[in-house]
Amino acid sequence: MTPQTHIETHTIAVLVDNEPGALARVIGLFSGRGYNIESLTVAEVEAARNLSRITVVTSGTPMIIEQIKAQLDRLVLVHSVHDLTLDGPAVERELALVKVRGAGDKRIESLRIADVFRARAVDSTTESFVFEVTGSSQKINAFIQLMIPLGLVDVSRTGVVAIARGPEGLLNAD
Predict the structure, then answer these.
(1) For the chain, which has fewer Cβ within 10 Å, the N-terminal or C-terminal residue?
(2) Where is the ACT domain (predicted)?
(3) 3-state secondary structure of 123
């Protein structure tokens, strides 16, 4: 595999104006060019300046990743684009709610595994649990895989949120 065909996964943080249609314009850039979005989160981060932060996990060749960042940076509503994968150490987390149905030994085993993964039972009935688990996407994937044979019923995931380590931040960068 040549460096131009090597697929990489990058976490990109985009600071945008918090206005109607902003997310649609950013996502339209991805869909219009056939770029993949593996995870997407968005929330207002500074009400006084009317700013939102979009965190996108995407994959592609190094050239495609550079194109994505350049095209995002050209959008009028975008204040800044940061590739957290390249900018240095970052903290990434995801939250999932995982519903497991079971009785007897399967119920006990699901509680044991949840304890190992530091998952918390946020709902419990005599027939099921809803676990809340946070951590890396890999940790959540592993937890879900272990719950499948124990009676996995449903999964809801937030997508990745990420922030650079250290004293600098996006809000004071522009």
Answers:
(1) N
(2) 11-89
(3) strand
Checking DSSP bridges between strand 51-60 and strand 120-124, what pairing results, if any? unpaired
How far apart (Å, rounded) are the C-alpha atoms in residues 133 and 157? 10
Lowest mean pLDDT among 2-6, 26-30, 128-132, 135-139: 2-6
pLDDT tens digits along 48-80: 999 999 999 999 999 999 999 999 999 999 999
Instruction: Evaluate whether 6 touches 77 at the Cβ level (below 8 Å).
Output: no
**E strands present in 30-89:** 36-46, 51-60, 78-83
pLDDT confidence of residue 150 = 97
96 beta partners:
133, 157
Q: What distance in Å separates the CA atoms of residue 27 and residue 64, rounded to the nearest whole number?
A: 16
Q: 2-16: per-residue pLDDT in tens?
A: 555 799 999 999 999
Q: How many CB atoms lie within 10 A of CB 52?
A: 21
